[in-house]
Structure prediction request, 248 residues.
Amino acid sequence: MGALDGRSVVVTGASSGIGEAIASRFVSEGALVVIGSRSEPDVAGTTWVPTDVAHPSEADALIAAAVEDHGRLDVLVNNAGVQVLNTLADTTDGEFDHVMGVNVRGVFNCCRAAIRRMRHHGGGSIINIGSVAGEAADHSMAVYNASKGAVHALTRSIAIDHGGDGVRCNAIAPGWIATALAEVVFEESDDPAAARAAAVERHPVGRLGTPEDVANLAVWLASDESSFVSGSLFTIDGGLTAQSPIGG
Prediction:
C-alpha cells in the first residue's frame, strides 16, 4: 500500500513539469488523481478535466468532478502557474491580469471550492506551489514575485481560518527547478549555456532541482505523516536562499 492509498486528489497544471511529476508520484502512491489543466496531460492512471483555474466556474467544476468520481476530496495541489519576464514599469495591464488571474485568483478559486467540499468530509490537505521568488524577488519578474507572495499569504490564512474544519494548508516554495519555465529564463539571456552553468554554480548542492524533488515533499504533505503540519512554507532550493549574498 502506498502513502496515499485511496485518497481523492486534484492536481492543477499537471500537463508538464512539477505538476506532472506530482500527479505521477501520487498515482504510484495509490491516490485517485484528477488533473485540472488547459492542455491534456500524459499521466497514466489519472482523469483529466479541462480547466482554466482563473475562472471560478471551471475551478468549481474541477473540484465537483473529483467528488463525484471518488465520493470526497482529500488533497488539492495548486500547481498551475504562469510567469512574465518584465519589470513593473514595463508590465502591461494584460500581463498583470494574466499572471495574477492564474497564480492568485486560480489558487483562490480552487481553494475555496475545495474547502467547501472538504469541511463536509472531515477535512483534507491543501498544498500550494509557491516560490522562493515570493520571499526574495527575482529580477525582472515583478508581477510573478508579487503573485507568489500572495500565494504564501493565502496559505497562512487558510490554515488559521479552516484548521477547525479539518483542513491543513501548506506551501512549497521551489527554487530553480529544471522545467520549461526555467528554460525560458535561460533562453532570454545572451548565452543560455553560460546562464545555466552560473545558476548551477550558485547552488550549494551543486545542481538545479528536479520536479521529482518537489513531488517527494508533496507526498509527505498530503500524507498522514504530516498531520500536525499546517500554515508552513517549505523552501526546496538546494540551499540557494540560505546563503549570504556576500560570496565565500
About this structure: The chain has a mean pLDDT of 96. The helical segments are 17-28, 56-70, 93-118, 142-162, 180-187, 192-201, 211-222. The first strand starts at residue 8 and ends at 12. The radius of gyration is 18 Å.
